[in-house]
Write a structure and sequence with these properties.
Low-confidence stretches: 41-50, 52-57
Structural class: alpha+beta
Radius of gyration: 28 Å
CATH topology of the largest domain: Rossmann fold
CATH class of the largest domain: Alpha Beta
Helix content: 25-40%
Strand content: 25-35%
Number of helices: 14
Oligomer: single chain
Shape: globular
Strand order of the largest sheet: 11-10-16-7-8-15-12-13
CATH superfamily of the largest domain: P-loop containing nucleotide triphosphate hydrolases
Distance between the termini: 53 Å
CATH architecture of the largest domain: 3-Layer(aba) Sandwich
Number of strands: 31
Largest sheet: 8 strands, antiparallel
Length: 597
């Protein structure tokens, strides 16, 4: 295919604005899939993607389209993930494109993720076609949505607005013509040394790592000897091809095209999104800019409710397709053997938990998520990175604790400025600067990751009615006055319930927590004290009421001997309580999460 007839584009939108449905209509109208192969949300192959209505893993599909001028075009749709946790994958998918469709729901208008993804595309200098979806809905507000888009980006007035219904196909054919007419063709030199961007990857147990690539310069042939420049990994290509949407082998990929290549590499850690591929012989010396190794932001313990070995095998299989997971074995005195897993965010955690349940039939107990801390010891002046609060050294041995910080960029309508700033300060944010952009403001804050990892994004959407967006990036560590909260149940320390918080919040949080735990910890035949301990001092305590028949107040006449026998049994239970196993359901750990909401 001639380079001038290639279009590489993506669709960006807020969650549930119809991106996957529009992808289905585009493939149907261009004949990429027939009626028999067609299925709703065809590019969202994971069950959790269809259930949540959000794309988790990016997909690519090549469409061949005959334009109104009689020429054939290759339209490569590069799908993008749809949640803030996968922001890095979105940026790399967009880096592989030459233009985007900015899709907005006619009934909801511009919302948070619309703005966030628009910002990514705008910063990359990508041309955009505005598309208003669901115009057939009786609740459609087309003029208002057009104005919202123009308020977001005045340059959109230079291109036509496409009004479509992805559900019925109305206006989609005209949109395809608009893609051909208004989005640019790639610019590359197929005679130059090979320069290819890895923008996604997957794992096949038989074929190894399969990478999705955009060829910027040069040609890619089967059996070529290639190098991943970031990891310095050299490999020989087993197969190259394109997605239609299933894999279809081809002889070569040239500058401007996108496709896949089978590497044969079995170690997923060697292949990273954003890496550059070139030939070993006569390859380029300078890699494409912007590559970053994805680091987990939150950690949580996963403990099996049934079989440890089955959980281990399932996690290994999931990790092969998700290189951003960091998995290590863990042993808890309360929960037994399990795993400590690092995630990109809370939504990423929930996706993995649901995949374990739906794809592998495994029930797991998940501890409260936490972030990694840098702990400096007094005697040795040694600094340790600790991802599990249970492994914190004794408080008298700690000189300082540093917590990870994030630079947060919040785009919000001007009328919500006060509420957004109050929210950021509530989460211990430090104001940096602010820019006015028409009727919107862009605010920069420095925030502790531990504060914003749980529900900050949801709170931000709530106070702005979905019109504020959030972009974050790591900004080092900062020493803070943090303490470890230990939870003792029946005088036995439960390490899986330990968590780290700021000293100023400890008293209020612990009082609230013990009262919540009173309602979720399974009762026994005797009262069980629940204590929250900070630096050896009990900050809060409450008793879990017993499951017992109180012989003294039940209103019936009983002999003294029966009453004494009952009390003797309870007394024995109390003496053995601290040595008995305490089984904690998932509801107990959910209490810790609710505490942070």
């Amino acid at each position: 295919m001639k380079e001038k007839n290639i279009r590489n584009f993506a669709i960006i939108s807020h969650i549930d604005h119809g991106k996957s449905t529009l992808s289905d209509r585009l493939m149907e109208i261009m004949g990429t899939v027939n009626q028999r192969e067609s299925a709703p949300q065809l590019l969202d192959s994971l069950a959790v993607e269809q259930e949540h209505g959000v794309t988790v893993k990016a997909r690519t599909v090549q469409n061949i389209y005959e334009g109104s001028n009689g020429e054939k075009y290759q339209l490569n749709l590069i799908d993008t993930p749809g949640h803030v946790d996968f922001n890095y994958e979105v940026s790399k998918s967009l880096a592989a494109t030459d233009g985007v469709l900015l899709l907005v729901d006619a009934t909801q208008g511009v919302q948070a993720q619309t703005v966030a993804n628009w910002r990514l595309a705008h910063d990359l200098g990508l041309p955009m076609l505005p598309v208003i979806n669901k115009v057939d809905s009786p609740n459609a507000k087309i003029p208002e949505v057009k104005q919202e888009l123009l308020d977001l980006d005045a340059s959109l007035s230079q291109r036509p607005f496409y009004e479509v219904s992805a559900k019925t196909g109305q206006g989609v054919a005209a949109l395809i013509e608009g893609i051909v007419k208004y989005l640019p063709a790639p610019k590359g030199d197929e005679n130059a040394p090979l320069k290819a961007l890895v923008y996604d990857s997957e794992f096949d147990p038989y074929l190894g790592v399969i990478v999705q690539v955009r060829i910027f310069d040069g040609k890619l042939n089967k059996n070529s000897k290639l190098e991943l420049m970031a990891s310095n990994r050299i490999f020989k290509v087993k197969e190259i091809g394109v997605y239609q949407p299933a894999r279809l082998p081809v002889k070569e990929l040239v500058a401007g095209e996108v496709g896949y290549l089978i590497t044969g590499i079995k170690e997923t850690a060697d292949v990273g999104v954003g890496d550059t591929i070139t030939t070993v012989a006569d390859g380029i010396k300078q890699a494409l800019p912007g590559f970053e190794k994805q680091q987990p932001l939150v950690y949580a313990g996963f403990f099996p409710q049934d079989d440890y070995q089955l959980l281990k095998e399932a996690l290994q299989k999931i990790a092969l397709n998700d290189s951003s997971l960091a998995i290590s074995e863990e042993n808890s005195t309360a929960m037994g053997p399990g795993f400590r897993i690092g995630f990109l965010g809370i939504f990423h955690l929930k996706i993995i938990q649901e995949r374990l349940e739906e794809e592998y039939g495994l029930k797991v107990t998940v501890t409260s998520p936490n972030v990694p801390y840098k702990v400096r010891l007094q005697d040795s002046q040694e600094t340790k990175i600790i991802t599990n609060p249970a492994h914190f050294p004794s408080f008298e041995k700690i000189e300082s604790i540093a917590e990870p910080m994030m630079t947060a960029v919040i785009d919000s309508p001007a009328e919500n400025l006060d509420r957004v700033m109050q929210l950021a300060e509530q989460y211990r944010g430090t104001f940096q600067d602010m820019d006015n952009e028409g009727n919107r403001v862009r605010i920069n804050y420095r925030l502790p990751l531990a504060e914003i990892a749980y529900d900050f994004y949801n709170q931000l959407k709530s106070i702005s009615h979905g019109y504020a967006s959030l972009q974050t990036k790591p900004d080092g560590y900062e020493v803070s006055d943090l303490v470890k909260v230990e939870i003792h149940i029946n005088y036995a320390k439960v390490d899986a319930l330990s968590f780290i918080t700021h000293r100023s919040k400890a008293a209020v949080l612990t009082q609230k927590l013990v009262h919540e735990l009173k309602m979720t910890i399974p009762r026994r035949l005797y009262p069980m004290p629940v204590q929250a301990v900070v630096e050896g001092k009990v900050l809060a305590r409450i008793d879990v009421p017993p499951l017992r028949k109180n012989a003294a107040v039940n209103g019936e006449q009983h002999s003294i001997s029966k009453k004494q026998a009952l009390l003797r049994r309870q007394n024995v239970n109390k003496r053995t309580a601290a040595h008995s196993d305490i089984e904690l359901p998932q509801a107990v750990f959910n209490t810790l999460l609710a505490l942070k909401d």
